[in-house]
Amino acid sequence: MIIKISDDALARAMGADELARAFERKGHEVHRTSSWGMHWLEPLVEIDGKGWGPATLEDVDDILEGGAAEIAIGAIEQHPFIARQQRLTFARAGKTRPLNLQDYEATGGWAGLRRARQIGSAQILEEVTASGLRGRGGAGFPAGIKWQTVAKASGPQKYIVCNADEGDSGTFADRMLIEGDPFMLIEGMAIAGEAVGADRGYVYLRSEYPDAIRKLERAVELSAGIVAPFQVEVRVGAGAYVCGEETSLLNSLEGKRGEVRAKPPLPALEGLFGKPTVVNNVLTLAAVPHILVEGGAGHYGTLGMGRSKGTMPIQLAGNLKHGGLFETGFGITLKELIYDIGGGTESGRPVKAVQVGGPLGAYLHPDQFDIRFDYEEYTEADALIGHGGITVFDDSADMGAMARFAMEFCAAESCGKCTPCRIGAVRGVELIDRIRTGGRTADHIERTAVMHNAPKHGRSQEQEIGLLTDLCETMKFGSLCALGGFTPFPVMSALKNWPEDFTGRADREAEAAE
Amino acid sequence: MEKIGEIIAEHRHREGPLLPILHAVQEEFGCVDADSEALIANGLNLSRADVHGVVSFYHDFLDKPDLRPVVQICRAEACKARGVEQIMDAATAAAGERVKLTTVYCLGLCSAGPAARVGDRLHARLDGPALAQVIENA
Ligand SMILES: Cc1cc2nc3c(=O)[nH]c(=O)nc-3n(C[C@H](O)[C@H](O)[C@H](O)COP(=O)(O)O)c2cc1C
Ligand code: SF4
Ligand code: FES
C-alpha cells in the first residue's frame, strides 16, 4: 500500500514530515508528492485515491484501518474543490513526486520540448502567440509578442530570465509550482530558449522560499542532460520586494542595487548584461509545455473569456474557510470564488473586503463581487488581477489601517529612484495618521512670526483627505514603476468604500473617552 | 579573512557574482560588515561604495551580526486578515531580549496564516500560544 503525503512547504509547516515518518515506521511506503492545493486539509493523507485531512499523528492507526471518518474526504478527485477546476498548469498537483523524472515523463513531461525542437523557432513563436497566453506576473503582456521581439533582436548571447520573486502577499502559486512541478518550469524555459535563440536561463527566486530553492536547484541538476545545451541557474533574491519588477530584477542579477530602470530600452532588446532577454513569470513559462504539445495552443485559446485566454491559477488566501490553489479558466466571479469555492470566512463573520492582486491591488467591496476574473474587467474597475491572489477580510478588518499599511509597505520597499514613491509614501503614512486622528493644527514653527506664509489655521480632516487624494494622483502619474504607481489603488479603494474607517475612529475614541 | 578570499574565488567566474558572494558571506559570518565589503570590493575590482550600496539596499544583509536566534513573522495582508496583529504582543513578550523578532512580508503560506519562519523551518496556522511556543523553541 502506497501512502501519499505532500512535501510542499505548507504541508510541512503543518506537520507532514512527522506524519510521513509515522506511516513509514508502521512499515508503509510513503510517496512525498506535490500538494493538491486544498490547504485547509493539509497535511492530507492519500491512500488509493481517497483522502484524510487535516491528519495528525493520532489519526495514523485509524486511517490505516480505513476509519477516521471525521477527517475522511473520500475520493480526492471528486472533491468539489478539485472537480470544479480546470487544471493545466497544475495538472500534476497532488499526483507526482516533484523530483522524480520517471513520474514527470510518465505524465507527459518533456513532450512539449521535444516537439518544440522539431518544429523550430518560427512555429513555436506562432503557437505561443496564437494561444493568447499573457504574462502571469501582473501586467498581462502577451508572451508571444515579447518572445518575438527577443527572437528578432540580433546578438550572439540572449537570456531567458524566470521571475520567481513572488513578493505579492496572498500569492503562492509560483512557490507551489516550483516545489511541486519544477521540471515543468525548466521545460518551459528551455522551450523559450529554443524559440528566441537563448542558451542560458536564470531563475531569480526569493530567499523567503527555502524549500523551493532547494528543490529547484536539485531539479536543475537532475534535468541538465535533458535540456542541454540550454543551461539553467538558480539565483536567490535578498529580501527586496521591488526586485520582482523586471528591470530591478535584472539589476539585482547583475549584482547591483535593485533599482528600477527606465524603459526604453525594453529588456527584450537590452536586458540582462545589456543582452536581449525574455523576462517571464513562473506561471507564464510553466504554461508553455502544455501549449506546445500537439493541439495545445488551440485548446488553450478556447478557455477563458475575452482577451484573457487560458487558465489562471487563483490563490485563495486570508480569512477563508477553504483556502488554497484554484486553477480555472478566466471569467469566474469573485462571489463564486469566495462563497462557493472558498466557503466564506474561516471566522464565520461576514466578508468585509477582498484584496485582489497583492499589496498593490484594490480592496473590493461586497457590492462588487460580481466582477469576473478578466484583465480588462478589473482594469475598468480600477483594480487589478496581478498575480491572481485573493485575500479575504472579515468585518473586524480596519480598512484605514490597511490603507496605512499599503503606504508603509511602499515606503519600506521603494527602490528610491523617484520622489513620488520614495517620499510620497512616507507622507502618505503621516497623512493617514492625521486623518484618523481628526486633522492637524499648525505646529509651533508654523505659528512663529517668520513663517508668515504658512497657514495658521491647521487643516481639517476633510482637507487632509483632499491632500491624500492629491498625493495619490501624484504617485499614480509620477512614479516610474507600479510600486509607487499602484499603491494608490489599495489606499483610494479603502477610502472610497470604507470612509468611516478613516474618519470614524477619532469620533469613536472621543465617544469612548466620555 | 581567508574564508572571504575563498568565497570570492569560488564565485568570481560567474556572471554577476556579487549577490551570490554576499549571500555566502552573510551565511558564514552572520553579516556583511565594512571589512568584508572592502575585501569583496578589492576582489571584484569594484569600489567600496559600489559594494556598500548593494549591501545596504537588500533587507537580507546585516552590517553587524546578531547572535540571537531569529524568528521571522509574516505581517503582510493575508496574515493580517487572519489575525497576526492581535498576537504580536504575546510574541514580543515571549521573545523578550533573548530572541530577535523580524518582520517578513509573506512566506507564501497565505491561506494558513499567521505564519513564521525559524531558519529553514516554517510554521503556519499560529495562534498566540503556538507562536509563543515557536519563539521559546527558537
Ligand atoms: C513592484 C513590482 C513588483 C513585481 N513583482 C513581480 C513578481 O514578484 N513576480 C513577477 O512575475 N512579476 C512581478 N512584477 C512584474 C514584472 O515587472 C514583469 O511584468 C513580469 O515579470 C513579466 O513577466 P510576465 O509577462 O510573464 O508576467 C512586478 C512588478 C512591479 C512593478
Ligand atoms: S515607483 Fe518607487 S519602486 Fe518604482 S522606480 Fe520609483 S522609487 Fe523605485
Ligand atoms: S501573507 Fe503571510 S504568508 Fe503570505
Automatic annotation (TrEMBL), chain A:
InterPro entries: NADH-UbQ_OxRdtase_51kDa_CS (IPR001949), Nuo51_FMN-bd (IPR011538), Nuo51_FMN-bd_sf (IPR037225), Nuop51_4Fe4S-bd (IPR019575), Nuop51_4Fe4S-bd_sf (IPR037207). Pfam families: Complex1_51K, NADH_4Fe-4S. SUPFAM superfamilies: Nqo1 FMN-binding domain-like, Nqo1 middle domain-like, Nqo1C-terminal domain-like. PANTHER family: NADH-QUINONE OXIDOREDUCTASE SUBUNIT F (PTHR43578:SF3). Residues 400-445 form the NADH-ubiquinone oxidoreductase 51kDa subunit iron-sulphur binding domain. Its cofactor is FMN. GO terms for molecular function: 4 iron, 4 sulfur cluster binding; FMN binding; metal ion binding; NADH dehydrogenase (ubiquinone) activity. This is Formate dehydrogenase. Belongs to the complex I 51 kDa subunit family. Keywords: 4Fe-4S, Iron, Iron-sulfur, Metal-binding. It comes from Croceibacterium soli. It comes from the Bacteria. The keyword Iron-sulfur applies.
TrEMBL record, chain B:
The keyword Phosphoprotein does not apply. Pfam families: 2Fe-2S_thioredx. It comes from the Bacteria. Its cofactor is [2Fe-2S] cluster. Keywords: 2Fe-2S, Iron, Iron-sulfur, Metal-binding. One of its GO terms (molecular function) is metal ion binding. SUPFAM superfamilies: Thioredoxin-like. Signal peptide: none annotated. Belongs to the complex I 24 kDa subunit family. This is NADH-quinone oxidoreductase subunit E.
